[in-house]
Write a structure and sequence with these properties.
The chain has three domains: 6-113, PAS domain (Beta-Lactamase, 2-Layer Sandwich); 116-189, Helix Hairpins (Orthogonal Bundle); 197-343, Heat Shock Protein 90, CATH 3.30.565.10. It has helices spanning 6-13, 32-36, 48-52, 58-69, 113-157, 162-189, 201-211, 213-218, 238-255, 308-318, and strands spanning 17-21, 27-30, 75-80, 89-99, 102-112, 197-199, 222-226, 234-236, 261-268, 274-280, 322-328, 332-339, 346-348, 354-356. The radius of gyration is 28 Å and the shape is elongated. The longest helix has 45 residues, at 113-157. It starts with 5 loop residues before the first helix and ends in a 7-residue tail after the last strand. By secondary structure, it is α+β, with helices and mostly antiparallel strands. Bound molecules: adenosine-5'-triphosphate and magnesium ion.
Length: 363
């Protein structure tokens, strides 16, 4: 089978319905997204107004088509998806298709605005949560310091009372936990700007593994590691990427049964992106928890804050990368992190012109 031309593959890949219509408004082409809607109105030969908005749209579209034939500007409408406004809306746009100076038909696109509205609302909600949390975290810092100092003074003054000792220990442990929460919230709510530089993310793993060696050894966990070969070349903020990797490794170490193996495999994908997969055994993440593991404050651990993965996702997205967790019974959990690769460096050739040492590969 001959491959489709690039233009057609691009049209099919767009998450937007694209139609071509003739001068009478009959559909002559629909891209794959539209065809997959499986809607009788999107069929070839049907009227475009039936496909995009029902009979109510006929007059408006016919007027727009007439105006476009006279050289008028492209038109767009925001239409409700159904009679209930809560179902969201879609954006319909129409533009002329020309052969030379003559208008021979129209291109019509429809975009579902509901998904982007939902994403924006979720972002605003999270920003509001982060704002309140960081405010509270900031105010908690000083009293926590006060509680911890007072408890230590008590421990110093009352040396031989086991009950006091036990309870002071408890106070200090809880203060430590709250301090971790406060630090996490401040990191989440007031992110440092990213300072990216070309680097190898596997080199960041080297340092993280070294810093967490004690934690792995204390649980008798053996880490099997495969590095990307040749090394990846990405634009990274090594400090912030290290925070992501520490969170992932700590989560894996917490979940893995003592004495088991962790595997860490990095590779460079054909498009130059760096991918690493960290796998641990142990109980799988329940199906109702898995879709929410990146939510702020979601934790299933007694001493957890639920900030770890939310922070990871924010940092990874700032790097234009992706992060995902898979978990299945008897297979444990795998975290997959992908960061885009930088284009290959260009080396000057004999003519002095720069040329790519390998095809430029970007995500
Ligand atoms: N590798 C893993 N294996 C099993 N469960 C995991 C793994 N990583 C994350 N989880 C689940 O996802 C939840 C959220 O993880 P996250 O790192 O955000 O918070 P946490 O580890 O509970 O607390 P902290 O803020 O201290 O990191 C965890 O409580 C755990 O239930
Ligand atoms: Mg964690």
């Amino acid at each position: 089978m001959r491959p489709l031309p690039l233009e057609r593959r691009v049209l099919d890949a767009l998450p937007v319905t694209v139609y071509a219509v003739d001068l009478e408004g009959r559909i002559t082409f629909v891209n794959r997204t539209g065809a997959q809607r499986g809607d009788e109105h999107t069929a070839l030969g049907g009227a475009i107004w039936d496909a995009v908005g029902g009979p109510g749209m006929r007059l408006q579209l016919e007027q727009a088509m007439a105006a476009l034939r006279q050289g008028g500007a492209a038109a767009s409408w925001e239409l409700p998806l159904s009679s209930s406004a809560a179902d969201g809306a879609h954006l319909v746009q129409i533009a002329p298709l020309r052969e030379g100076q003559t208008v021979t038909g129209y291109a019509v696109t429809t975009v579902d605005l509901a998904a982007s509205h939902r994403a924006r609302e979720e972002k605003q909600r999270l920003a509001a949560v982060a704002d309140v949390s960081t405010g509270v975290a900031h105010e908690l810092r000083n009293p926590l310091f006060g509680i911890s100092s007072a408890a230590q003074l008590l421990r110093f003054r009352v040396k031989d009372d086991p009950v006091v000792e036990k309870n002071v220990g408890r106070i200090l442990r809880e203060v430590d936990r709250l301090n971790a929460l406060v630090t996490g919230l401040l990191e989440y709510g007031r992110p440092d700007p990213l300072h990216r530089a070309p680097g190898d993310p596997d080199a960041v793993w080297d340092e993280v593994i070294e810093s967490q060696r004690g934690r792995l050894e204390s649980r008798a966990l053996l880490l099997h590691r495969t590095r990307a070969e040749p090394p990846a070349h990405c634009a990274i903020d090594a400090g912030q990427l290290a925070q992501v990797l520490v969170n992932l490794l700590v989560n894996a170490a917490d979940a893995a049964p003592p004495g088991t193996d962790l595997t860490l495999q990095s590779s460079v994908l054909p498009n130059g992106a760096w991918r690493c997969r960290l796998h641990n055994g142990g109980a799988e993440i329940p199906a109702d928890v898995l879709p929410r593991v990146f939510d702020l404050f979601l934790t299933t651990k007694a001493g957890g804050t639920g900030i770890g993965l939310a922070l990871c996702r924010r940092i990874v997205e700032q790097h234009d990368g992706t992060i995902a967790l898979e978990s299945a019974p008897e297979h444990g959990t795998t975290a997959t992190l992908v960061l885009p690769g930088l284009p290959h460096r260009r080396a000057p050739d004999a003519s002095g012109k720069a040329h790519a040492t390998a095809p430029d590969a970007m995500l």
